[in-house]
Design a protein that fits this description.
This protein is mainly alpha-helical and 644 residues long. The chain has helices at 17-35, 48-52, 60-67, 89-96, 107-119, 126-134, 152-167, 177-182, 184-217, 219-231, 233-238, 245-262, 267-271, 275-305, 315-325, 334-337, 346-367, 369-377, 379-390, 398-413, 415-430, 437-452, 466-490, 495-528, 533-546, 582-587; strands at 101-102, 555-557, 576-578, 595-599, 613-616, 631-635. The longest helix has 34 residues, at 184-217.
């Protein structure tokens, strides 16, 4: 394999045929992995026997009318859930006092539950994208998605793709929610389109990882980094979810590459006054200027894709600093730190930052125009959306957050990548590698944000680590390549043995990463069919509940029921109550319902199993994903709940 030295004259040199072929193989692997299991956990009419028993399914118009038509309320954010609970003060106080809260006492409550099971997936956040699109009507110029943490660069293209698929007959696209309540399988196709859009950005993430690693350590490092990124569990997970975190990471890593590009300088430009060198310097200057403006726009686009990408904007002041200092990647930080270096004019740096920030803001507002518009015409929806998002995050228990982030990083990237990637980061810092500064700066800020908010977060919080996990993969790829070069340079003989040793290390790293990624892929594939844990639990539960006839046993849950939190049951027949936690259910001997249903991240997340419990396990533990989650059903033959 060609090993380009990481200097300024070769980092953009043409790729060899072998490198192009290997890169194409890596990208093809991502496409295949993304397609397998892409239909996991979709709404489907096959659940009707569990949801409605022997009775005919409720008509969509009836469900929508009883549920209150809250699917597209223009006064609240699209991420404000259609809550099946009666949130009256008395019931909230009862729940706080560990008094079980009825969830389906009325037909309206039952309709809200049925709406969830007809339109939602096994992933709890995917539905908010469809709710955002459901509240829009381009023909009437209603284009406000009412969703701003997921940006317009995700919402609008997904909407356009759905419209295109409808135009060519792949999907039945209409503005009639009742129709989709009657045909949940048709609505499930909408989620496939959103997932495909997210997965497509995985190609961009892999290419950006290749480009950044190639810049740092050559072709071999680029290919290794791209392969690791494709195989990481968090990449496979996010490529199967219709959410913008993978696209956001791709744009952030592209911005890192642009920051490296726009800050490059060559010694020849400053050391040689010949006409040819001067012309080359002018061309290089224009190319760097274009990269600078593209960097600024890409930072804004990344935030326009998903709001959690905001830390990428640290690249604007950093790149401005490196450009004005004239730092040379070939010589590390020497030009900036030398005694002869010209002091950086603060006013010029601030002006450069302001121009870049303005371009980033314009790019953001271009893809999210209703952020500005609603400041004047609909402030309540802004308050609703941002308030709902902020309520889920708080800065507390930083030490606990650090441990949680370390755990999720090892899960999302794989422990081998995490350890070897950190070694790469340390190597760059020790050698004062200026060209690595953009990557380390963004990864550092994102990890700090990740840590500050990480205490007590569920495993799905690992989705926010896509970029930092990719940065670790790049570090790991560079370490392997540099070890290869260092060992070869010091090996007077036995060079074949050195290459075999490096190949073995690379194989261990790739295989260790692939092992975790394949586990996630297998659970996605299993969740596509009727052999997934929720379906099996639903079938067993239906039979067990039928055996209790003519009684209608009460079912206890620990979360508001939805396809991701509870297998489907007949909500119009069996009373459903909510407890704050499993311990409350166990202590409530006088009122304890006959059965408790739990959906777990891991089998050890719940105090159990207890006598009378039955656990339906997934193929593998894949906690970041919602596919094929373990389901535990615990029966109690104690006293039935008493009427209040």
């Amino acid at each position: 394999m060609q090993r380009n030295s990481p200097n300024l004259m070769t980092w953009e040199s043409p790729l060899s045929k072998r490198v192009r072929a290997l890169l194409l193989l890596i990208l093809t692997t991502h496409v295949v992995a993304s397609v397998l299991g892409i239909r996991w956990g979709l709404p489907t009419g096959r659940w009707d026997a569990c949801l409605f028993g022997d009775a005919p399914p409720w008509e969509g118009s009836r469900i929508l009318q009883l549920a209150g038509g809250a699917w597209a309320d223009s006064t609240v954010g699209a991420d404000v859930d259609v809550d099946p609970l009666d949130t009256s003060t008395s019931r909230r106080h009862g729940l706080a006092a560990n008094i079980p809260t009825p969830l389906n006492a009325t037909e309206a409550d039952q309709a809200r539950l049925y709406l969830r099971y007809r339109l939602y997936t096994h992933q709890p956040d995917e539905m908010i994208v469809m709710r955002a699109l459901g509240g829009m009507n381009p023909s009437q110029l209603r284009l406000d998605p009412r969703l701003y943490q997921y940006g317009g660069l995700f919402i609008y293209p997904v909407g356009a793709l759905l419209k295109l698929c409808g135009a060519v007959g792949l999907i039945d696209v209409r503005g009639d929610v009742a129709f989709y309540l009657d045909h949940p399988d048709e609505f499930g196709k909408f989620y496939v389109v959103a997932r495909a859009y997210s997965a497509a950005w995985g190609l961009a993430l892999s290419l950006a990882a290749f480009a950044v690693a190639r810049r740092l350590a050559g072709d071999a490092a680029g290919l290794t980094a791209a392969a690791l990124v494709v195989l990481m569990p968090v990449t496979i997970c996010m490529a199967h979810e219709g959410k913008p975190h993978l696209p956001g990471a791709a744009l952030m890593l592209t911005a890192v590459w642009l920051a490296m590009r726009c800050t490059q300088h060559t010694q020849e430009d400053r050391a040689d006054d010949s006409d040819a060198r001067a012309a080359n310097a002018r061309r290089e200057s224009r190319a760097n200027a274009r990269a600078w403006w593209l960097l600024s726009a890409t930072c804004g686009a990344a935030v326009g894709m998903v709001l959690s990408s905001a830390p990428v904007c640290v690249l604007i002041p950093l790149a401005a600093y490196l450009r004005l200092r004239g730092a040379s990647p070939r010589n590390g930080l020497q030009p900036s730190l030398s005694r002869d270096a010209v002091p950086l004019p603060a006013a010029r740096w601030l002006a450069t930052c302001a121009r870049g920030g303005l371009v980033a803001m314009l790019a953001y507002l271009l893809t999210n125009p209703y952020i500005a518009i609603n400041l004047f015409i609909n402030r309540p929806v802004l308050a609703s959306n941002f308030g709902n998002s902020l309520a889920m995050y708080e800065i507390s228990r930083i030490g606990e957050g650090f441990l949680r982030v370390a755990e999720l990083t090892a899960e999302g990237a794989g422990l081998p990548i995490a350890l070897v990637g950190i070694a790469g980061w340390i190597l760059w810092l020790r050698n004062q590698r200026t060209e690595a500064a953009p990557l380390l700066a963004v990864a550092g800020v994102l990890l700090a944000q990740f840590t500050l908010l990480g205490a007590g977060k569920p495993a799905e919080y690992g989705r926010f680590g896509v970029f930092s996990d990719a940065a670790l993969a790049i570090g790991a790829g560079c370490v392997i390549t540099r070890l290869d070069r260092a060992w070869l340079n010091h090996a007077s003989r036995g060079r074949s043995a050195v290459r075999i040793a490096v190949l073995a290390l690379t194989t261990i790293l790739v295989a260790g990463t692939a092992r975790g990624g394949i586990a996630y892929l297998l659970n996605f594939h299993r969740d596509e069919g009727a052999a997934n844990t929720r379906w099996i639990a639903a079938a067993v539960l239906r039979d067990d509940l039928a055996d209790e006839a003519p009684r209608s046993p009460t079912i206890a849950v620990l979360r508001a029921p939805a396809p991701y939190a509870c297998p489907p049951v007949d909500f119009s027949r069996y009373p459903l109550v909510l407890y704050t936690d499993k311990a409350s259910w166990q202590r409530d001997a006088a009122r304890r319902p006959s059965v408790l249903i739990e959906v777990l991240d891991r089998l050890d997340d719940s105090p159990g199993p207890t006598p009378g419990s039955q656990t339906f396990e997934g193929l593998h533990a894949t906690p970041i994903s919602w596919a094929n989650k373990p389901v535990r059903v615990t029966w109690s033959r104690g006293v039935e709940p008493q009427n209040e």
